[in-house]
């Protein structure tokens, strides 16, 4: 009786062992696939760096460091701030929203542009070329300080990242600096505004020792108002001005 029962149980033991073995093999085969997936980009990954365009590759062709319109790709810098992307380096400032999605998906735009005319005309053409790429971006890859944006047409835009001033120095204080660059040299003073963005006429005195603004060089015979962020260098305890944007630009009358 016992012999017969044991013989009947053997097939059951065999099936149990087979199921366990198949499950173990399946786990070993799927694990490497999960490990090869790229880590998703977070907002911090994007906002902590300023991204300079390095090259553009068309499908089936080698990457080039020059735009089809002529200017070098490296003129263009991309920055991600508060859910928006800001692009400069051509003729106009370009900006729009960005959205991250699952499986390394990203969407940029709709984009808006300032309406300045520039010479040479190739700078305006370069803006349009960049916008054409941006409108087609569908995915990304991040490898250290290298960011790659890929379009639906398999075009690849490669960027190198450098830490932003906020990432290096911490939060800054926003200020507006009025600058006049005349034959007498550069003069500056802080411009202040009320809560309705109407300038306060405080008759601040002009300063003649210009500390410089990173990312901004005033041209001769021009006047500006530049929005900056003032940071304190933790090592030297000196103030550092970083250009955010030029809000006013004109010829000295």
The string of secondary-structure elements, in order, is: HHEEEEEHEEEHEEEEE
Largest sheet: 8 strands, antiparallel
Strand order of the largest sheet: 5-4-3-2-1-8-7-6
**What is the top-level CATH class of the largest domain?**
Mainly Beta
Percent strand: 35-45%
Radius of gyration computed on alpha carbons:
28 Å
* Head-to-tail CA distance between termini: 114 Å
Number of domains: 2
Overall pLDDT metric: 83
SS field, number of helical segments: 4
Uncertain residue segments: 1-9, 12-19, 21-40
Helix content: 10-25%
Write the topology of this structure.
Elements (H helix, E strand, L loop, with lengths): L1 H34 L7 H5 L1 E9 L19 E5 L2 E5 L5 E8 L3 E9 L8 H15 E7 L2 E6 L4 E8 L1 H5 L3 E10 L2 E9 L5 E2 L21 E11 L6 E13 L2
Antiparallel strand pairs: 1-2, 1-8, 2-3, 3-4, 4-5, 6-7, 7-8, 9-10, 9-12, 10-11, 12-13
Task: Describe the fold and architecture.
The protein has helices at residues 2-35, 43-47, 122-136, 165-169; strands at residues 49-57, 77-81, 84-88, 94-101, 105-113, 137-143, 146-151, 156-163, 173-182, 185-193, 199-200, 222-232, 239-251. The chain is α+β, with helices and mostly antiparallel strands and 253 residues long. It has an eight-stranded antiparallel sheet. Mean pLDDT is 83; it is low at 1-9, 12-19 and 21-40.
